[in-house]
Amino acid sequence: xxxxxxxxxxxxxxxxxxxxxxxxxxxxxxxxxxxxxxxxxxxxxxxxxxxxxxxxxxxxxxxxxxxxxxxxxxxxxxxxxxxxxxxxxxxxxxxxxxxxxxxxxxxxxxxxxxxxxxxxxxxxxxxxxxxxxxxxxxxxxxxxxxxxxxxxxxxxxxxxxxxxxxxxxxxxxxxxxxxxxxxxxxxxxxxxxxxxxxxxxxxxxxxxxxxxxxxxxxxxxxxxxxxxxxxxxxxxxxxxxxxxxxxxxxxxxxxxxxxxxxxxxxxxxxxxxxxxxxxxxxxxxxxxxxxxxxxxxxxxxxxxxxxxxxxxxxxxxxxxxxxxxxxxxxxxxxxxxxxxxxxxxxxxxxxxxxxxxxxxxxxxxxxxxxxxxxxxxxxxxxxxxxxxxxxxxxxxxxxxxxxxxxxxxxxxxxxxxxxxxxxxxxxxxxxxxxxxxxx
Length: 439
Ligand SMILES: [Zn+2]
Prior knowledge:
Blueprint: E1 3-11, E2 19-28, E3 31-37, E4 47-50, E5 55-58, E6 60-65, H1 85-99, H2 102-118, E7 121-126, H3 137-148, E8 151-154, H4 164-180, E9 187-189, E10 191-195, H5 201-211, E11 219-223, H6 227-235, H7 241-247, E12 256-259, H8 265-273, E13 277-280, H9 282-288, H10 295-300, E14 304-305, H11 314-327, H12 338-354, E15 369-372, H13 385-391, E16 398-401, E17 404-408, E18 411-412, H14 417-437
Parallel strand pairs: 1-4, 1-5, 6-7, 7-8, 8-9, 10-11, 11-12, 12-13, 13-14
Antiparallel strand pairs: 1-2, 2-3, 5-15, 15-16, 16-17, 17-18
Helix pairs in contact: 1-14, 2-3, 2-14, 11-12
């Protein structure tokens, strides 16, 4: 049934008009058909949903995350504190991913995606790793995302770090998913690679050849996150990570690169000229102390925004990212516009990779919308919406995907949120014990 949402404050960051004080949105078959200023004349077969002055934003995108780390919050720290990037990976994340089994993976996906939905994130680019349970893991992710109404990009991080057989299993899982979901509007399969420094030249060549059968499919990879990755390419005889990936034809406009902190000016040119998609993850970078992404590079390459598994909330990532950068700047220097990464670059990247427009409030776009019962202490206007986004908004009250409410008045619809969290608490205890047993 067609619906018209009425009495809305419509906020469309970086679009024109950016703000409509009293608006309506018409939905036909799960898509936005039109929007405008009140009043609106309803067609006979249409249902009006009065949104009582709520503020509406387009559903947000997380352009790089790891749902497999959902159950990491509060887990016991490693026995010896890691002192460099590789040790952080080895003692924390590569033990966590090896300890995952089918049950803890399912619960990680459910609890992780529920947290996304609750903060208004409706499109997620995931980078998955579970070496002990690979086959079927991406299909499981696609199934859970579909149940929750979330658009998902899948990728299994292939790597040599767990041996040749494990690399082949990861590659096969990617290829199966690429085959199965290539024409699915809500699942965008990508070929995942962990990072250049855990992949041999032979493995990169294998990936390159595998992609011959899928010319439209992109890779999703960590790029020069830490200086370690850059040094590794040097030791293998390449000038940089980007130069190494170029040798294997792995720099393309449909690829997704997370971080890109330790790249050279030549690399920035290569990435710019290839129209590659990059993702900035400021809270993760701060947490891992890998350095701060150059602000000029960030703006030049039109980076998107991700959370790298640190949190679900993208508005919080934007606010914290801006503050982390500010803390490294001198007075009078202009900061990077983090809301632009979230509300302009992310929808552009998501639309390009999924192959159709999404995460905008525009006619023809899926009705993925986030509603806030927002009572501000200062007037929200055409000029000052950015401050309200960064410092005013809390959790959304309602979240809609493809025209259906998935969260209504704070509660999930058709999803048992309490059961998911109860299962997650049980599974996390088991997971942490399994980690203890791994050396
Ligand atoms: Zn990552």
